[in-house]
Amino acid sequence: MDNISLIYTTTSNYEDAYNISKTLLEHKLIACANIFNNVTSIYSWENEVHNTAEYVIILKTTKNLVQETTDKIHEIHPYDTPAIITIDPTNTNDKFLHWVNDYIKS
């Protein structure tokens, strides 16, 4: 059984967040996505400080699909330089891990 990985990314609107999540789910690259709204991102871009409302997406996949999943995110993401960050949990509920693996491998 493959261990779970989480992938974090952001978008500027709900439609993009939903479409990215749905596409990855339909390709069985992820088992689940959580979309959070009303997130404020403060960052520097081209030597200016920006304050932007964004949507955060947390995607649940398996370690062996991280590269393929991040490649697909790059392909469909509207940002030129999207934040795509992989997080490897140190502990995962066994039943949840089985569910993720079963969905992705079906």
Automatic annotation (TrEMBL):
GO MF, one example: copper ion binding
Pfam families: CutA1
One GO-annotated biological process of the protein: response to metal ion
Gene3D superfamilies, A to Z: 3.30.70.120
UniProt-listed InterPro entries: Ion_tolerance_CutA, N-reg_PII-like_a/b, N-reg_PII/ATP_PRibTrfase_C
PANTHER family for the chain: DIVALENT CATION TOLERANCE CUTA-RELATED (PTHR23419), FI09726P (PTHR23419:SF8)
Family: Belongs to the CutA family.
Name of the featured protein: Divalent-cation tolerance protein CutA
Species of origin: Ehrlichia ruminantium
